[in-house]
Design brief:
The structure is a homodimer.
Chain A (H helix, E strand, L loop, with lengths): L10 H5 L12 H15 L7 E2 L1 H8 L3 H14 L2 E4 L3 E4 L4 H21 L6 H15 L3 H20 L5 H9 L1 H13 L5 H16 L3 H14 L1
Antiparallel strand pairs in A: 1-3, 2-3
Chain B binds a DNA duplex (30 and 30 nucleotides) through α4.
Chain lengths: ~230, ~230
DNA sequence: TCGGACACGATTGTCCGACAATTAAGTGAA
DNA sequence: TTCACTTAATTGTCGGACAATCGTGTCCGA
């Protein structure tokens, strides 16, 4: 028998999980999707795990339809695998998968770099460095989640330097893949929080040269190192 | 009052819309999603159009839940815009959006080209050329759909030359964006079916040189021309 | 005449319960 | 062990239901 992943109270916590947003309406489906996504990323729900709709619905105290919609959404981002008729499973990513995901991001960010206002404005530079520095203080196994948030924020800031909305959008739609790839990496202990910080600072340096080529090279290395 | 977009018979046609696949089980949701996607791509449902769940459900003779799931899926690919509370609308793409989408694909395919087995095998070359040639015979305004299918097939074949599954996957998850961008282009009359064929043949030539750099350059031009 | 408060209808977000179809698992026989 | 079969679990889809919310048009007061 599988162990319960969502045992505790549900609705109460859910309602405020990531809610302190400005004023954007968050639907229940969003909250459920976020919740499950988090469990997957953190590894509470390990790869291959069968996600049974009814069970999730009960554990989270929502209707099956709501869970279903959330799962559909996760499936579209690639975190969950749908096999018509036989259910949804947490997707498994091999090492080479992870390497490739890195490439996808290198490709997209590299492309964006071509359009970026380089070098970044002083304000942007500061912001980027600040984010990188924040990574330094993290205790690794526990703060994975925070590290990922910072990572997303960093690369997001880097990409938002320029108004290429579609690139940013494509990037965002694949973003949770990035999150998945980070977890095993962290586990493997490949990077301490310090090295993460350093690696990102290198990127800032590359960007500050004002040479798109250098930033692109930097990005490639950044992702290959993982 | 809006004109009906899905007036004719529904279920019967739906069942076999794109079904001649090997043996993959297609759910009703898939069929509905395909159907709506097609209408959007073909322009029957113009940008900004409000997609009312109940209405679609009735027109297609399926339940609202099914439509909802289909819409969710389309939204995740970017074709449909969700605004919690106020409904789903067909997404509008500006010219610059379209240009950017082209860039995304150039980036991904270019990246894939780095890993491709270049030059393609004789078999692959033949297949690519065949596809390109098939474009030649099309009557344009009417055969848009077929042209798009060929285009997808071409680029898909090009990318499948190598086993970089994640790149391919990222590409696929964005594929319908590619489809949307082609329609206005066709309408604008930018390319006759002949020029389409020629442009793709140029890509084959580039690939056959065995030089990844040349293929990448080719891809960039390919998308920029649009 | 114009801006704003209000009421109303349309639509969405979510829930429930139900049922056939399909899949996965367990059982027994060869 | 392996194969065929029965059984239980799960999915795919349906219909209806209801509150919350949104968009819109109406009426009122300035």
């Amino acid at each position: 028998m599988e162990s319960k992943a969502f045992s505790e109270q549900a609705k109460t916590t859910l309602a405020r999980t990531l809610a302190p947003r400005v004023a954007e309406r968050t639907t229940l489906v969003d909250q459920v999707a976020n919740r499950i996504r988090r469990e997957i990323i953190l590894g509470t729900l390990d790869p291959g795990r069968h996600l049974v709709e009814k069970r999730l619905a009960e554990d989270l105290s929502v209707s099956r339809g709501t869970v279903r919609e959330a799962l559909t959404r996760l499936a579209s981002t690639g975190l969950v695998e749908f096999s018509p008729g036989s259910g949804n499973r947490v997707r498994y990513f091999s090492d080479s998968d992870i390497a490739e995901i890195g490439e996808v991001f290198a490709a997209l960010e590299g492309r964006a770099a071509l359009h970026a206002v380089l070098p970044p404005s002083p304000a942007a530079e500061k912001e980027l460095r600040d984010i990188a520095e924040q990574m330094r203080g993290l205790r690794l196994p526990d703060d994975v989640e925070e590290l990922m948030r910072l990572d997303r924020e960093f690369h997001g800031t880097l990409m938002n330097q320029q108004p290429k909305t579609k690139l940013v959008e494509a990037w965002q739609s694949l973003e949770s893949l990035l999150a998945v790839m980070m977890v095993p990496i962290m586990r493997r202990g490949v990077g301490t929080s310090d090295s993460q910080a350093d690696r990102h600072l290198l990127l800032v340096d590359a960007a500050m040269t004002g040479e798109p080529e250098l930033l692109i090279k930097g990005l490639e290395q950044h992702y290959y190192q993982m």
